[in-house]
Specification:
This protein has a seven-stranded parallel beta sheet with strand order 3-2-1-4-5-6-7, with helices on both faces. α1 runs antiparallel to α2, α6 packs parallel to α11 and α10 packs across α11. It is an alpha/beta fold and about 375 residues long. It has a single domain, classed as Rossmann fold (3-Layer(aba) Sandwich), CATH 3.40.50.10210. The protein contains 14 helices and seven strands.
């Protein structure tokens, strides 16, 4: 079988995604490397904390980077595939969790407060109604995507709108002076969509990537795998292009995150990638926008089985491995203090000259 509604990857409205990423600042990188070499410690003694500071210096175009201003955009949407019982939770939970986030009761809400981040919630379309709230942006595209196992999840027009919502979030972050961008997500059924998308882009079998998501038992995982296999067969002729694959297999919130990641790379905004769903969007961004991966840091290793394959394909290494699989951007928010420590050590440690400490002698 093949898709009966082909999605043109060159459709008007998504061609902006092909523009390359901004160049990183190699001079700032070299200045940061030099500074690290002059700090009162043996070279490399702070391990990846040194690498983080150097990467951020190159991305922020300054010798001493900082992540004091953090912006979090949480994109929420429902999925047609959820009707096939691929989640341990009912679909109404998507709208309920948006309300919980707006009220400050979700994990990402707590973490955003703790790290002092700006947070916005973007409703891209839910089956259950979402009550108006000042913290929720109404950007509804449709009540949900279509069932990806039976037809393309999105039309080309819907894909373009979702991508544009991601880019608009980055524009708001830049206007606020954000030094780091985090995209979070909420959507019952979105681990199925993300797994299908990853399998399609990586050329993998569903069995190699599928996991429990929100807590499925073995029978549920088997049902999920069969649906993903059916989707991969149905849309096989669309999987060579990341935009077409996204339209066929993704979700509104996954597309919005991909659009945000592409826009971050093009506009020169460092981004901290969260877990499994976010990495599926990052995989699309890295395939669609040349150089996008240079602007990404990966917060943590998701407990979902397919995460490793995706991040290896992008070329990212997780900063943390805490067994997390919540989503929402929670793993990324939890990693922000680590980035801040790396920047503070880089900026505030004394050099050998400043401290009057003798450097290591060269070998005779």
């Amino acid at each position: 079988m093949s898709s009966n509604n082909l999605v043109d990857p060159h459709a008007v409205g998504i061609d902006w995604c092909r523009a390359p990423a901004a160049a990183v600042d190699l001079q700032a990188r070299e200045e940061a490397i030099t500074r690290q070499g002059n700090l009162t410690k043996p070279p490399g003694a702070l391990g990846r904390l040194e690498d983080i500071a150097i990467q951020l210096a190159a991305l922020q175009r300054r010798e001493k980077p900082a992540v004091d201003r953090v912006w979090i955009s949480v994109f929420a949407a429902d999925h047609g595939i959820a009707a096939a019982d691929v989640s341990a939770f009912p679909q109404a939970v998507t709208a309920q969790m948006i309300a919980n986030m707006a009220a400050g009761g979700a994990a990402i809400s707590v973490l955003a407060r703790r790290i002092g981040a700006e947070i916005e919630l973007i409703d891209l379309g839910t089956v259950a109604p979402v009550a108006p709230h000042p913290a929720i942006r109404d950007a509804r595209i449709a009540p949900s995507t279509a069932n990806l196992a039976e037809e393309p999840a999105m039309s080309a027009e819907q894909l373009a709108r979702a991508l544009a919502e991601g880019a608009a979030a980055v524009a708001r972050a830049r206007a606020d002076g954000a030094e780091l961008f985090i995209a979070g997500e909420m959507g019952i059924g979105n681990t199925t969509a993300a797994t299908a998308l990853a399998a399609g882009l990586l050329g993998s079998a569903a069995a190699d990537l599928v996991g429990p998501g929100t807590g499925l038992d073995q029978a549920g995982i088997a049902r999920k795998q069969a649906l993903i296999d059916a989707a991969l067969t149905r849309h096989a002729d669309q999987l060579s292009d990341p935009a077409a694959a996204l339209a066929c297999l993704g979700g509104f919130e996954i597309a919005a995150m991909a659009g945000a990641y592409i826009s971050c790379a093009q506009q020169g905004v460092p981004m901290l990638i969260d877990g499994f769903i976010s990495s599926a969007a990052a995989l699309v961004a890295s395939r669609r926008c040349p150089g996008a991966a240079d602007w990404m840091l990966l917060a943590h290793a998701s407990a979902e089985p397919g995460h490793r394959a995706m991040v290896d394909a992008i070329g990212l290494r997780p900063l943390l491995d805490l067994g997390m699989r919540l989503g929402e951007g929670s793993g990324a928010a939890a990693a922000v203090p680590l980035l801040r420590v790396a920047c503070q050590l880089h900026a505030e440690m004394a050099t050998f000259d400043e401290a009057g400490v003798a450097e290591k002698q060269s070998s005779c």
